[in-house]
Amino acid sequence: MRHKILTVDDAKTVRIIIKKAFRSYDCEIIEAVNGVEGLAIAAKHMPDLILLDITMPVMDGVEMLTRLKADPQLKGIPVMMLTAEGGRDNVLKIAKLGVRDYIIKPFKEDTLIEKIGRILDLLPLEEGTDRQRSTQDPADILLVEDKPAIIQQITDGLKHTPWKVHGVPSQGAALDFCTQTVPHLIIISLSLPDESAFALFRGLRANPKTKSIPVFGLVVKTETAVQVAAQQVGITSVVTKPIDMAELESRMSKAMNLDISSRYFRIEPEFLHITLPASCTPIALAEMEQYLQPKLAEAVNTGINKVIINVNAIRYLDMSALKYLVQTMQACRGLGMSYALIGNTLVASECKNLEETKFWDFHETVENAKAHLVSGGQLVKA
């Protein structure tokens, strides 16, 4: 959730510096020029943090803080004071006011981010934050692994995605990378020497820029003690070797909070396309089930009432895939949507031999399916 930060300072320059410092983070910066205005804005917006200058006209920071602490609704908002004085007596005075922290002017952006990162989970700002990122969006994956073969395996296994895997061999190289680029997800081999994997994890969590990034631990399947230790320290997910790349990709997508519906669903003028992958694994079927009803509803809401169900990539329809197809057809009928199947000759022949699917008919191409639906026909009976 986007954080709201209220900055109360009569100096426009300071407010500009603060706003600029947070340009790379998912935060909303609200401004006030004095304590009176700050109190009114705080009551209206209920910010997650207040950056409060001490010396201001109309109402200074000390008086505003006193009123904040006296208000039952506002007293719980953490406050960081800004002061131009750094002497011991002044610091003690600020501490007695009940603030969470303080910062001395002039200050550097990194110092401000570091201090606020101790109070709030600062998340990097993503492109297009008005929508959920999807599996079609680029992502930087940091892989900390001293075995080149594993780096190559994961790189090859994800090459069909727009994600870029950055392989580094050590804790130091990983920390150096993070100073230049904030990755979307980090995978750490838990077999790095001298338990440096756990030291790296602690360092990442202590850094405001990386404290909220999902971190996966990579470990041999038989090393159960290491897996337990990883879970106890708070590693996001443990991946075991040998690596199941389909499962890894799915878990990475979920950890990065990506919209994975584009793998299976596509909306275009007049039609909703549902495409089953060549391998309908339990993971893939669960993902498709998760998005089926929302995507059908989205299509209906945009005036689309025709669905193309494409199983052309499948060479064998097992019972789980058949069950999903039946579920999809029933959902379409329930919404009054027309639908047609696209499939290869192997699947079509297989369906003819089953009682439940013997009336299913398949088009060979998308164009044929579209033409049939536009003409008002419906081939599938289920």
Written account of the structure:
The chain is of the alpha/beta class and 382 residues long. It folds into 3 domains: 3-117, Rossmann fold; 139-255, Rossmann fold; 261-374, Transcription Regulator spoIIAA, CATH 3.30.750. It has helices at 12-21, 35-45, 61-70, 88-96, 109-117, 148-157, 171-180, 196-206, 224-233, 245-255, 282-301, 319-334, 345-352, 366-374; strands at 3-8, 27-32, 49-53, 79-83, 101-104, 139-144, 163-168, 185-189, 215-220, 237-241, 265-268, 271-275, 306-310, 338-342, 362-363. Helix 11 links the parallel strand 12 and strand 13. Helix 1 packs across helix 5 (109-117), helix 2 packs parallel to helix 3 (61-70) and helix 11 (282-301) packs parallel to helix 12. The longest helix has 20 residues, at 282-301. The protein starts with a strand and ends in an 8-residue tail after the last helix.
